[in-house]
Each structure stands twice: as C-alpha cells, then as structure tokens.
Amino acid sequence: MKRGAFLLPRGIYLDGNSLGPLSYAAQAATERRLKQWQHLAVNGWDEWFGLSERLSPALARLVGANPAEVIATGSITANLHALLATFYRPEGARRNLLATSLDFPSDLYALSAWAQRLGGTLKLIPSRDGHTLHDDDVRAALGPDIALAVLPTVLYRSGQLLDVRTISAQAHETGALIGWDAAHSVGALPHAFHDDEVDFAVWCSYKYLNAGPGAPGGLFVHERHFDLTPGLPGWWGHEKSTQFEMAGGFRKAAGAGAYQVGTPSIVALAGLEGALGIFEEVAIGAVRARSLELTAHLIALADAQLPECTLRTPREPERRGGHVVLEHPDAKLLSLALRRRGIIPDYRAPDLLRLAPVALYNTEAELGEAVRVLRELLDSGSYRQEQAHKSEVT
Ligand SMILES: Cc1ncc(COP(=O)(O)O)c(C=O)c1O
After folding, report:
1. Among candidates 256, 270, 250, 241, which has minimal Cα distance to 48?
2. Is 95 exposed, middle or buried (0-12, 13-18, 19+ CB in 10 A)?
3. Taking the domain 24-281, which CATH number applies?
4. Half-sphere exposure in the Cβ direction for 323 (13 Å, CA)
5. Which of these is catalytic: 87, 193, 206, 361?
6. Is the pLDDT of residue 394 over 60?
C-alpha cells in the first residue's frame, strides 16, 4: 500500500510487529528535529512544547477517540503503572485485578505489583490450549470480585484478536473497569475506544506505527474519567498554559495529557510525528482489509506447503490480529536459518515462529518466497546446522 514510503532492510521483513521499519517521513521528521536542536538549542522549546498534544488528532483517528482522550507518551509498562495508580481502587469485596495467563510478561509484572501493594489478587483467565482464550472463560472470570481488568486486544504470541466492545460491556455489567493493552493492534486495525466505552488503553508506537525503537507510546483515557486525578502526577501532565509558573501545586491538564509525567524526548517523538503522516494518507480501515488479505494468504500457503507446522492463530478473520503464528519444535533453528537467508521472522520460545505480513509494505510475493524457503529448509534439514552458529545470534 505504501511500500515506497519505507527504507526497508535488505531481504524480506516479516517482523514489523516487533519493530516497524524506518520510513522516509520518520527519517525526515527526526532530521528536522535534530537540526532544530543544533540551531535553536534551548529556544527549540518554543516550538517543541506541546508537540505530543499536536499529535493527538492523528492518534485519535487511529484508535477511535476524541483528541483530548489520547496522548503520545511513555512506554506501555510505564503508562500502565500510571493508569493502575489511578484506576485500580479496590473497595470492599471488589479487590482483584484480572489479566490473562497469555499476557506479555511486563504487564503481569506491573499488575501483580499493584495487586500486592493494594491488598488484592491478580487473577488470570486460563487458556484451554495454551495459545488462545475462550470467550466463555473471559466472561466467567469477570466476577464480582474484579475491580479492574486489563486485557490484550491481540495476544502477543498467537495473534488472537479479542472483541473489545463485547468484553468491555461485559466488564461494565459486572461493575468492573477495563483497560486494554493494544500493543499489537494500534496501526494494524481500527479501534473505537470511545464508542466501545473502554476505560483506558495503552499501546506502543514501535510496532505497527513504525515510529522507531523506543519511540513514545500512547494512552487513551475515556472522557468520562477526566475528573480523576492521575495517581502518578508529574509536571508534564500539568495544565499547559500554567505549567511553567511552577506555583500552587499540581493542576492537571484537561484530558489524557494529564497522564504525562516528565519531559518527552522530542527526537523520539519526531519518529512518531513522521510515521503518523503515513496513516493520514491511508485509512486504517483499508490497512485492516489489506492485512486480512495478507494473513489469509499466508495461512493458505502454510496449509498447503507446511503441514508439519501447526497454525496457532485463529482462522476466523474477526478473531485474528496482524500476525500469524506457526508452531514447530525447531522454530528457533528455523528462525535463525531464515535470517541467514535474508528473511526476518520473529521467534518466541520455545517453538513459535511469528510472521507479520504488514499491510503497508509487505506483498504476497514476499510471503510466497518466505514459505518456499521455509519448505526448502525443512526438506533439506540444513537448518539444523544453525545449532553450531546459535551463540552468534542469540
Ligand atoms: C503486548 C505487549 N505489552 C507490553 C509490551 C511492553 O512494552 P513497553 O516496552 O513499551 O513497556 C510489549 C512489548 O513488546 C508487548 O508486546
């Protein structure tokens, strides 16, 4: 869709759900901010102040929010801490946090620390097959003891997409609040966080948004919660026009901007600034439609040519995020051998090959070639030699 907009690494890049590639726009925006730093030094703040807020309209379009409900800031984990410090308020018998047994570990570290601190328990929705969640199990776990659920929109290993609208409504019916970790969906598919009544959400921008390694992520806070005071306040979340008066205590900014803590990296924000421009040219609905075409194509290729690999991603389009996961006992060696052949997959221990055909820049031809090489490696068994080279790469 926008392949020409990217400076893709040599070979076939199928790891955009780990780190999106550099775009010309992100490069140009970063160079511009570096030049400003060079020529303006501290006077640059005249222009840089409020940059995060100026990115909100574009981010809001991607996640289905009002601009005041989103802000580019922090990492997923830091933002999650800031939001837990605000939204996790155990009361009476409603004391517990809910997450899933398949969550990204960093979320679980944060959630279990908050449960311990405030005297609750972190409950985990079980998985029947070790890869996906069953709707009934999600619903059953939302008991009257749950104060706050934090769930992934797309499971980072299997790529299962959860139904944000339905589960958010179920959480609210039981009296719980709900936050979402949208690391693997923002930039890959549309969201409607405002209309779905999501309480809060967090995401990163280094995956499908292609903003660069460690670029600031984002958060959403529904406007019905704008009366809350951030539990982790800092001067960057202060009301903007009086931030530099530095008197009279913390007066929070009007919207999600209140959840910023300290000074943002302007150079890192520039990557996001440039990368978001690409999403202004292609509607996120069209990105999703193309992503589904590509993942369906990859699944069909795997079905036809890789019978020894087990598909761990749901086949139904409405239950699938932007990546496809194949299970094979030698996934690690296969991923190393693919890299040696110029094909960049992602490997998740102990036996998963994660492949992300990204709508903006990957093609059917690349998927055909990747599967052909994988077939060749399996037939020849040559990937087993990677054992000898393993220490070079891990
Ligand atoms: C689903 C998910 N949640 C959380 C994280 C951690 O993100 P961060 O390093 O921005 O805190 C990641 C990182 O890849 C992730 O995939």
Report:
1. 270
2. middle
3. 3.40.640.10
4. 33
5. 206
6. no
Q: Which residue in the list 181, 196, 330, 346 is annotated as catalytic?
A: 181
Beta pairing partners, 365: none
Handedness of CA 302, 303, 309, 312 (dihedral sign): positive
Distance CA 153, CA 180 (A): 6
181 lines ligand 1 (CB under 6 A): yes
Q: Is the pLDDT of residue 168 over 70?
A: yes
Superfamily of domain 283-388, CATH level 4? Aspartate Aminotransferase, domain 1 (3.90.1150.10)
Torsions phi, psi for 218 (to 5 deg): -150, 165
Residue 103 Cα: closest atom of ligand 1: 1
Count each helix (H run) and each strand (E run) in the chain, helices first.
13, 13
Atom of ligand 1 nearest to the CA of 80: 11
From-to residues of CATH 3.40.640.10 in the chain: 24-281
Q: Percent helix, strand and coil across the chain, each rounded to 5?
A: 45, 15, 40
109 assigned to active site: no
* Residue 76 CA, ligand 1 centroid: distance in Å: 6
Q: What share of the chain has pLDDT > 90, as a percent?
A: 97
Please report the beta strands in the chain, taking only residues with DSSP state E, as ranges in sequence order: 12-13, 70-72, 96-100, 122-125, 146-152, 177-181, 200-203, 218-221, 310-311, 324-327, 343-344, 346-348, 352-355
pLDDT at position 166 is: 98
Q: Is the pTM of this model over 0.85?
A: yes
* Pairing of β 218-221 and β 200-203: antiparallel
Measured in angstroms, how far is the CA atom of residue 19 from the centroid of ligand 1? 11
Start-end ranges of CATH 3.90.1150.10 in the chain?
Answer: 283-388
Asked if residue 306 lies in contact with residue 326, where contact means CB atoms within 8 angstroms, the answer is yes
What value does the mean pLDDT of the chain take? 96
Q: Which among 18, 204, 206, 325 is the best mutation to test ligand 1's pocket, defined by most ligand atoms within 8 Å of the CB?
A: 204
347: which residues sit within 8 A by CB, 6+ positions away? 331, 332, 335, 336, 353, 354
